[in-house]
Design goal:
single chain; 281 residues; alpha+beta; Elongation Factor Tu (Ef-tu), domain 3; 5-stranded antiparallel sheet; 3-stranded antiparallel sheet; 3 helices; 37% helix; Beta-barrel_RND_2; UPF0194_transport; coiled coil
Length: 281
């Protein structure tokens, strides 16, 4: 494609030189016109001389007619050459316009082969090698920004109804094991992933690390409710049927909010109750 554009540029330059510059073809015709006009002026002078002589009764009529014919012939030759010059100039202009349109078309077609990102950023991955064929459906590269990173979180089906836009996220990143960061829920995708049985949500950092990289992983806890002085127990101490094991046997409890690690106890036991971790069967 680049070779075609280069050929079109060379062709345009040559035709522009012929059309706007010193064209040898136009110069040749202009020289012919100058020569023909000189001859026409000579023939006109000769014809006028024969006319004066004839008016004085001197000379032969055949000589007058031959002088007139030579003059008119030279006139026609000048007119024909002037038409030829104009036609040649028009032809050169048309060829120049065609060459300019061809170059414009070639550049337009080249733009069809150029792939441009709709955002500013960096290329994180290239899935194709130079020279490989790609189609409009091929995912051949990953491009992302370098500024505001998006946090993607997968929420279990049973928890998605508790999540709202603007909820606070407490985030632990594997790359920064001793740091805790906060974020906000910005988007909740309504379609469930049938493979993972989760819903995708996106968040943005309230306080971000000084350095971030595409693909960092970690654990996120979304704060969906807050309780002051809440009584909680570890999640793995809660048995099926909302039962807990105590020194006095199993007791049923009423639970409130919960996360992966802890469960809120609304009633059934209090802070003085000693609970036991269930034995695995």
């Amino acid at each position: 494609m680049q070779n075609r554009i280069k050929d079109a540029e060379i062709n345009l330059k040559e035709l522009e030189s012929e059309y706007r510059g010193n064209s040898s073809l136009l110069s040749s015709i202009e020289l012919e016109i100058k020569t023909a006009k000189d001859q026409m002026n000579l023939n006109r002078t000769n014809y006028q001389r024969y006319q004066r002589l004839w008016s004085q009764g001197i000379g032969k009529r055949v000589d007058l007619e031959q002088a007139e014919l030579a003059y008119k012939t030279s006139q026609n030759q000048v007119r024909n050459l002037e038409k030829k010059l104009e036609q040649t100039r028009n032809d050169l202009r048309n060829r120049y316009d065609m060459a300019r349109n061809r170059l414009s078309t070639e550049k337009e077609q080249l733009r069809d082969f150029e792939i441009r990102s709709e955002i500013d950023g960096v290329i994180y991955a290239l899935n194709k090698e130079e020279g490989e064929y790609i189609t409009a459906q091929d995912r051949f590269a990953e491009i992302g920004g370098t500024g505001d990173y998006v946090i993607q979180m997968n929420i279990d089906e049973e928890d998605i109804s508790k999540i709202n836009l603007g909820d606070t996220v407490v985030l632990d990143l594997d790359a920064y094991p001793n740091e805790v960061y906060t974020a906000r829920i910005q988007k909740i995708f309504p379609k469930k992933d049938e493979v993972t049985q989760t819903f995708l949500t996106e968040g943005s950092f309230v306080q971000a690390p000084s350095k971030l990289y595409n693909g960092l992983s970690g654990e996120a806890n979304i704060i969906v409710s807050k309780r002051e002085k809440a009584l909680t127990i570890p999640s793995d101490y809660l048995m099926s049927g909302n039962m807990v094991q105590t020194e006095d046997g199993s007791k049923k409890v009423k639970i409130g909010v919960r996360n992966i690690e802890f469960v809120e106890i609304m009633s059934g036991i209090d802070s003085s109750t000693l609970i036991l971790k269930p034995t695995e069967e």
